TrEMBL record:
Belongs to the AlaDH/PNT family. The lineage of its organism: Bacteria, Pseudomonadati, Pseudomonadota, Gammaproteobacteria, Cellvibrionales. Coiled coil: none annotated. This is proton-translocating NAD(P)(+) transhydrogenase. GO terms for cellular component: plasma membrane. PROSITE patterns: ALADH_PNT_2. NCBIfam families: PRK09424.1. Residues 4-139 form the Alanine dehydrogenase/pyridine nucleotide transhydrogenase N-terminal domain. InterPro entries: Ala_DH/PNT_CS2, AlaDH/PNT_N, AlaDH/PNT_NAD(H)-bd, NAD(P)-bd_dom_sf. Keywords: NAD, NADP, Nucleotide-binding, Oxidoreductase, Translocase. Its EC number is 7.1.1.1.
């Protein structure tokens, strides 16, 4: 099977989908590996490292797309790229399938099997393929680093002959994978951390990291069978906003990571709350690119409101591209290896598998994913 790895063209993207180590493993499995020239540069990998791993470097991007049986990448393709692919080709990447009707139509028309990394189910067996989690984990770390860089204070308490500096107060909204890593990172730096999440089960995890859990009575919230939060009612969102107001005013740093899978993120920090914060405070809005948890945050940018810095730069994991590439690449490899037929030396699409069918969006000219099919109708 001919596996192709194109260069990522999205501005600000430094991660790469396949590292030289994983390239070597794919070649060892019997794949013919084609890598676009300079594909690894963003994360510091050279063409020579891929050649050494057994890959062939291809300069012509169009040729790469049209000759591939399997394409491995990070970001979604363009419609033009889909049109270059052969019928029966398999494309694995992030796809944002809930919002990409045009792309899904293009995959369908081209007869390409599209597999979405966002749709890897949250089971024990699929954890090694879970790119949302591996990248969110790094995002949690990066968000704290960014906040620390912008804050005109330090995180830890410092007792010196020149006086005592109090530890910074950090409030984390949403304690999923990214939020928990943000809590752990801020704690390691010595901050006083409080967190809130709508899933009550998270309280214990927050406390085990040495942070305080903010109790808010929202009534029934629950979580889905897949381990995701359920969307709050507008009334519950309002209760949450009011209950967080005080702690936000007292925080030096607020980090928001609240999301409900497949939905627009809730707006949890409003302008009047920002106005109540001390000038110099910092807010990091992880959800800025998908609608925002924070009023006034701007996707891809850092803005200021009443002296408060609001960071919405996004693509957080790309800031630590080397580690992020290693993790994503490993997630991809585990998915490929799990579906690899030794005999045919090829990735096999098996609709009887317990993981794969849920991640397949289109196959053989049809939208096969039930959730996405319902949205498309
Ligand atoms: P996510 O990125 O979809 O959401 C982020 C967090 O926001 C979640 O914890 C959610 O509860 C929270 N949230 C939603 N609305 C909120 C609101 N109004 N206020 C505050 N918080 C709000 O989720 P995630 O980080 O990818 O994962 C969530 C959980 O799923 C994890 O903590 C874990 O328990 C579970 N998980 C399981 C597996 C597995 O079993 N393989 C893998 C990854 C995650």
């Amino acid at each position: 099977m001919r596996i192709a790895i194109p260069r990522e063209l999205q501005p600000g993207e430094n991660r790469v989908p396949v590292t030289p180590d994983v390239a070597k493993k794919l070649v060892r499995m019997g794949a013919e590996l084609l890598v676009e020239a300079s594909m690894g540069v963003g994360a510091g990998f050279t063409d020579a490292e891929y050649t050494e791993a057994g890959a062939t470097i291809v300069a012509d991007r169009k040729e790469l797309f049209s000759s591939a049986d399997l394409l491995l990448r990070l970001n979604k393709p363009s419609v033009d790229e889909i049109e270059l692919m052969q019928r029966g080709c398999i494309h694995i990447s992030y796809l944002d399938p809930f919002n990409e009707r045009e792309l899904i139509d293009a995959f369908k028309a081209a007869g390409v099997t599209s597999i979405s990394m966002e749709m890897i189910p949250r089971t024990t067996r699929s954890q090694k393929m879970d790119a949302l989690s591996s990248q969110a984990n790094l995002a949690g770390y990066v968000m704290v680093m960014k906040a620390a860089n912008h804050l005109p204070r330090i995180f830890p308490m410092m007792m010196t002959p020149a006086g005592t500096l109090k530890p910074a107060n950090v409030f984390v909204i949403g304690a999923g994978v990214a939020g928990l890593q943000a809590i752990a990172t801020a704690k390691r730096l010595g901050a006083k951390v409080t967190a809130f999440d709508t899933r009550p089960v998270v309280a214990e995890q927050v406390q085990s990291l040495g942070a305080k859990f903010l109790e808010i009575d929202l009534g029934e919230t629950g979580e889905t069978a897949g381990g995701y939060a359920k969307e709050l009612t507008p009334e519950q969102v309002e209760i949450q906003r009011q209950a967080q107001k005080d702690i936000i005013a007292k925080s030096d740093v607020v980090i928001t990571t609240a999301q409900v899978f497949g939905r627009k993120p809730p707006v949890l920090v409003t302008q009047d709350m920002i106005e109540g914060m001390q000038p110099g405070s910092v807010i990091v809005d992880m959800a800025a690119e998908t609608g925002g948890n924070v009023e006034g945050s701007r996707p891809g940018d850092v803005v200021e409101w009443c002296g408060v810095t609001i960071i919405g730069t996004g693509n957080w994991a790309s800031e630590v591209a080397r580690d992020a590439s290693q993790m994503y690449s490993s997630n991809l490899f585990n998915l490929v290896e799990d579906n690899w037929c030794e005999e045919k030396k090829a990735f096999e699409v098996n609709f009887e598998d317990d993981i794969l069918p849920g991640c397949i969006i289109t196959h053989d000219g049809e939208v096969t994913n039930e959730t996405i099919k319902n949205i498309m109708e």
